[in-house]
Automatic annotation (TrEMBL):
Nucleus among keywords: no
Keyword annotations of the record: Hydrolase
The protein's name: N-acetyl-L,L-diaminopimelate deacetylase
Entry annotated with the keyword Hydrolase: yes
Annotated EC: 3.-.-.-, 3.5.1.18
Entries under InterPro entries matching the protein: Amidohydrolase (IPR017439), Bact_exopeptidase_dim_dom (IPR036264), Peptidase_M20 (IPR002933), Peptidase_M20_dimer (IPR011650)
Positions of the Peptidase M20 dimerisation domain: 175-267
SUPFAM superfamilies xrefs: Bacterial exopeptidase dimerisation domain (SSF55031), Zn-dependent exopeptidases (SSF53187)
GO molecular function: succinyl-diaminopimelate desuccinylase activity
Length: 373
């Protein structure tokens, strides 16, 4: 069996046996077994799921990270190695990321005697619910690490294409819930109530002015109301309406500005209509900020080993890798996976041809990064 076939077999085995965030028990057992069989040292962290291994000797440590969790999606890709777990699917390609970093681990093991330090391999659980990175850091996975690297496959790019950027990359992802409390009334006697539906409608439109009229047009921002609920029949004006939505930004100043404007608009409308509007704000994943130097380093190496490289656009989604980069420098990169259907789609089907090259790339990246100051 060739190296590429080995990695593809592992990827398919992971793909057939996907597990949800925080429940990656069998996945963890498989990865542990594969790493141990290849002679890698497993670090004895008390993790419920996830694996951390190491290769090499010395003071300096470079980390490579893969994520291992799947999504609550019923697979419709039609591939022969489709999910055996009903309603669970590797629809984000974390099975591909895992096989890439497993491949890098094997290559680094072969070159162990020549490494100028240690490479730590993080197989992180629970990326999709943004809790895994924190758990690994708490366990000690970043101790003595001078830089960390990770990847996401990019269905919109052809295989052989590589993209990244210095600075902000993935977004701050926040959620808000707004509760409009007016006064219920007979639909035929609206003057006796404070119509929560009319107020909520004005609120949705007013929130759109944050992006169009408050934030600098050169800054990225999304304010979306994604759920609106109120009333239960045709002849009663409801007492209350609940709205929910999300805000995406790439700078903390803008994030704070948007949060402040939502509260001001809610308070202003409540006062104008004699109602009450409660605002609840939930901070989600933080902006992923690549280190300029390491992003350039990763890009140059990609070019040197034959990838077509390009600068990434800003990404409006969230990525748990951001949490590592809050603690230590490093770079997150995109590698083309040429899937007709996108990430989180039930028919997502990344091209496995990316796996071998990406494994070789990450092994060399870690090896070269160990030589940097
Ligand atoms: Zn995902
Ligand atoms: Zn993902």
């Amino acid at each position: 069996m060739t190296f590429a076939e080995q990695l593809i077999n592992w990827r398919r085995e992971l793909h057939q046996n996907p597990e949800l965030s925080g429940q990656e028990v069998a996945t963890t057992t498989r990865i542990r077994h594969w790493l141990e069989s290849a002679g890698l040292r497993l670090l004895p962290y008390p993790l419920a799921t996830g694996v951390v291994a190491e290769v090499g000797q010395g003071e300096k440590v470079i980390a490579l990270r893969a994520d291992i969790d799947a999504l609550p999606i019923q697979e419709t890709s039609g591939v022969a190695f489709s999910s055996h777990n009903d309603g669970v699917m590797h629809a984000c390609g974390h099975d591909v990321h895992s096989s890439v970093i497993l491949g890098a681990a094997l290559l680094l093991k072969e070159r162990e005697a020549h490494l100028s330090g240690r490479v730590r391999l993080l197989f992180q659980p629970a990326e999709e619910n943004f809790t895994g990175a924190k758990a690994l850091i708490k366990a000690g996975a970043l101790e003595n690490v001078s830089a960390i690297f990770g990847m996401h496959n990019e269905p919109g790019l052809p295989v052989g294409t590589f993209a990244t950027r210095g600075g902000a990359f993935y977004a701050n992802v926040d959620r808000f819930v707004l509760r409009v409390r007016g006064k219920g009334a007979h639909a035929a006697r609206p003057h006796e109530g404070k119509d929560a539906i009319v107020i909520a409608s004005q609120l949705v439109l007013a929130l759109q002015t944050i992006a169009s009229r408050n934030v600098d047009t050169l800054d990225s921002v999304i304010v979306s109301v994604t759920r609106i609920q109120g009333g239960n029949t045709w002849n009663v004006l409801p007492e209350s309406v609940e709205l929910e939505g999300t805000v995406r930004t790439h700078r903390n100043e803008i994030q704070q500005q948007v949060e402040k404007r939502i509260s001001e608009i809610a308070a202003g409308l409540a006062s104008a209509f004699g109602a009450h509007i409660e605002v609840e704000w939930f901070n989600g994943p933080i902006t992923l900020i690549n280190d300029d130097k390491w992003a350039a380093f990763a890009m140059q190496l990609a070019q040197r080993v034959g990838y077509r490289t390009q600068t990434s656009e800003l990404h409006m989604g969230g990525e748990d890798f951001a949490v590592y980069l809050q603690t230590i420098p490093g770079a997150f990169v995109s590698i083309g996976s040429a899937s007709e259907y996108g990430l989180h789609h039930s028919a997502f089907n990344p091209d496995e041809a990316l796996i071998e090259d990406a494994a070789r790339y990450f092994a060399t990246l870690a090896e070269q990064a160990l030589l940097e100051k």
